[in-house]
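## retry 2 of 3
previous attempt timed out at serialization; input unchanged, resubmitting
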Amino acid sequence: MSTQANIQRRAMDEAVKELTKRLREWAATPADQREPAEMFSRRFMHDMNGHGWRRTPAGRTNPLARRPPDDPAAAAQRGAALAWNELAKVIEKRAGIGPDEGGPE
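## retry succeeded, writing output
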């Protein structure tokens, strides 16, 4: 297991212990003195944020998506060509050029 995974597992274990402790205290409080469940949950999340917990995306990010292209000029040219082709399609569609008029089928 990687170091990052070990750190994450320890942090999760600590959070579970803290939440379990607080839930037991909340459940042991008489019902008429108990704070509402939503308020309890919000207070817990605010406390966890104070300890460094942050909301993160659930999905994994693609490491290749952030990698800069090997040749920025070639990537820009491919992007420009794609945009130019799409623009040509839009112009033809708006102009109403049909297959019998020399447009695309």
